[in-house]
Specification:
By secondary structure, the chain is α/β, with parallel strands linked by helices. It has 20 helices and five strands. Strands 3-2-1-4-5 form a five-stranded parallel β-sheet, sandwiched between helices. The protein is globular and about 75 Å long. Bound molecules: flavin-adenine dinucleotide. The site of flavin-adenine dinucleotide (FAD) has 27 residues, from helix 9, helix 11, helix 14 and helix 16.
Length: about 475
């Protein structure tokens, strides 16, 4: 049998049930990726940079096994169906996608090939659990993380997760006769004028080998001390696996499996790290059951929230020029590296939605464009959580104080010094509140506030009071 394996967010060769089944069932296996030009959840901005390198890497891995990645651009289902006809294949195998658009495209391929007598198989592999199989005792979807986590963790029996391994790649077809792959260079996923991605490669290594290296590093240096280090942005205390997971260069099962064989599945040692993987599961679960979350607040009363339209403030936030050093450091780290530390994502998101009262969707849009790990479920989940309007969200009245957050999680100011170099000579006592520093000290540190570094664009106390008043108005 001839089979197409349709790669989407599963850009890996191992623990890939669809590929493993195709290699077992097929005599000729074609590997296809479609860059979908209509996908509203598809990569944009920075994530396109990652995708480019990830596809190049997957193609090299396939080539080493005797195969090739056949590239197409267009509408996924149309391209798949045309290729199926051209290659005269009888079956299409794929990893099930949970993002609404890709999931619809997969269903179209399923229906139309079925009508023609073809076989379409969808395999689980992107998540640890299938969102449509999990319900609470009232047979309703979970809306609170902790019970969801307890329930699913027990159900999954993490210590005995099995991986799917493929050893025989003989059925891979190097190049189908008369059919050429499109050239990835023509897709122009990499920025050139200007090349705002110039520094990305210093911090990230897209592709399967990069994912394996990130996991190995996490096992050696992150997992054990994760609870102590994870909130300190100046410390390399988190795994940096998010973009690898988003593009499926590694599966969550592979991560859990390795964590288990190295540290065991143990609440004390590996529990806090594993728990974060379940936030990813939870966000996908919510998006699956409540797809409207993409555009509107999970808690409907927030759709009446008096968001402000202030392009000057939005612009200052995007550029890292708010005058609050921890916020500015985060926004600049994001712009230069395509990644931001989770604690700082929360601080920056809180500042935008609460201090500036700008709609969480503006922040979601900016992150969507600038994050290498931009992911609809996690980004929307993260933004709605911080804004207070999501399922199981932080209460709106819990407003992060950017000065205290900075002093607590960047006590020596190292993180700020890295990303806001104009403050690098300021002492830890004032680095998170330079406007309170004595003039002499500012002069000694080479800073003229308002010239070298902005004064705060809003006053923390006033902004806090105004945010609370706005929140009360929608109760
Ligand atoms: P680690 O701390 O090493 O965690 C391991 C893995 O667990 C991560 O790779 C990720 O897959 C998952 N994870 C960890 N924390 C979370 C979380 N809070 N929610 C969901 N999954 C989590 N994550 C994205 O992958 N894409 C996004 O677009 C995204 N947008 C966010 C927006 C906001 C406003 C906030 C507050 C968080 C967002 N997150 C997003 C979640 C989190 O910040 C990142 O997953 C994490 O910082 C990635 O770094 P890491 O891989 O080193 O994480």
């Amino acid at each position: 049998m001839k089979i197409i394996v349709w790669f989407t967010q599963d850009l890996r060769l191992q623990d890939h049930p669809a590929l493993a089944a195709a290699l077992k069932d097929g005599l000729e296996v074609y590997c296809v990726y479609v860059y979908d030009t209509l996908n509203p959840e598809g990569p944009s901005g920075a994530a396109n940079w990652w995708l480019h390198h990830s596809l190049v890497s997957l193609n090299s891995e396939l080539a080493a096994k005797g195969g090739q990645l056949l590239l197409r651009q267009g509408v996924s289902a149309d391209e798949l169906l045309t290729l199926a006809e051209q290659l005269d294949v009888q079956a299409v195998y794929m990893t099930r996608s949970y993002e609404p658009y890709l999931s619809q495209q997969q269903s179209r391929v399923y229906q139309q090939l079925n009508i023609k007598g073809g076989t379409v198989k969808r395999f689980a592999g992107y998540l640890l659990l299938e969102p449509d199989t999990i319900f609470n005792k009232q047979h309703k979807p979970f809306q609170v993380f902790t019970p969801f986590y307890r329930h699913t963790r027990d159900l999954l029996n993490l210590g005995s997760l099995k991986l799917t391994t493929s050893t025989n790649f003989a059925a891979l077809i190097p190049k189908p006769p008369k059919i050429n792959s499109e050239s990835i260079e023509n897709w122009q996923l990499l920025p050139s004028k200007p090349n705002w991605a110039a520094e990305f490669a210093e911090y990230s290594n897209p592709g399967g080998p990069g994912a394996k290296a990130a996991l190995a590093n996490a096992l050696a240096t992150v997992v054990e001390d994760y609870p102590q280090n994870r909130d300190f942005p100046a410390v390399d205390g988190t795994s940096r696996l998010s973009a690898h997971l988003h593009f499926g260069e590694i599966s969550p099962r592979q991560i859990v499996h390795k964590v288990n064989s190295t540290w065991g599945i143990d609440d004390e040692k590996s529990g806090p790290f594993i728990r974060q993987l379940f936030w990813r599961e939870f966000n996908y679960y919510l998006l699956h059951h409540y797809p409207d979350m993409r555009a509107s607040a999970f808690k409907p009363k927030f759709n009446q929230f008096p968001w402000r339209n202030n392009s000057q403030h939005l612009n200052a936030w995007q550029k890292g020029l708010t005058g609050y050093p921890i916020v500015d450091a985060g926004m600049r780290q994001l712009w230069r590296t395509g990644w931001m530390h989770n604690r700082v994502r929360m601080i920056c998101a809180s500042f935008l939605t609460k201090h500036l009262q700008i709609h969480w969707r503006e922040g979601e849009k900016w992150f969507w464009d600038t994050l290498l790990d931009a992911d609809k479920a996690n980004n929307i989940g993260g933004w709605q959580w911080v804004a207070g309007c999501g399922a199981d969200a932080a209460p709106y009245f819990r407003i992060f104080n950017p000065i205290i957050q900075g002093e607590k999680f960047d006590p020596y100011g190292d993180y700020v010094r890295t990303w806001v170099p104009e403050l690098s000579l300021l002492s830890p006592a004032f680095i998170h509140k330079p406007w309170q520093a004595p003039h002499g000290l500012l002069a000694q540190s080479g800073i003229k506030l308002g010239t070298d570094y902005p004064l705060p664009i809003v006053n923390h106390e006033q902004a806090r009071e105004q945010a609370l008043a706005a929140y009360k108005a929608i109760q």
